[in-house]
Amino acid sequence: MTATSASAPVLEMARPSAERPLLALTNVSKRFGGVRALENVSFDVQRGHLLGIIGPNGSGKSTLLSLIAGAQRPSSGQIVCNGRRLDRMRSHAIRGSASGAPIRSRGRSAA
Ligand SMILES: Nc1ncnc2c1ncn2[C@@H]1O[C@H](COP(=O)(O)OP(=O)(O)OP(=O)(O)O)[C@@H](O)[C@H]1O
Ligand SMILES: [Mg+2]
Fold first, then answer.
1. Is residue 63 part of a domain?
2. How far, in Å, from the CA of 16 to the mean position of ligand 2?
3. How far apart are the CA of 89 and the centre of ligand 1, in A?
4. N or C end of the chain: which has fewer CB within 10 A?
5. How many domains does the chain have?
């Protein structure tokens, strides 16, 4: 896989929530200047499943988790959690996405 598919997010969001993965990464890359920390990483995590990440020092484990948490944005690719594009959201808005809880704006409380 070399390029991000424009049709992928549409297909992802069209699936019923019971069938779509909780977390889906598609061709996620992250570069720091000339350093390629992640190159076209793709995987799904189904609801209720655990996924381990292993690799030698500098292989990109922390960078991967940082992207999923929203602390950094990918250079390319997409990250979808519960049907939401995390790679387009700010980190404070990502909280609650995995549980399906409503996303609250800063400074406002639910009625
Ligand atoms: N903020 C940054 N600026 C520049 N390069 C970075 C930055 N963060 C990570 N890198 C580089 O990206 C690559 C992946 O680093 P990362 O920290 O994600 O690896 P890691 O698998 O978590 O390593 P470790 O096992 O040592 O914790 C490394 O080459 C690292 O030097
Ligand atoms: Mg690390």
1. yes
2. 35
3. 22
4. C
5. 1
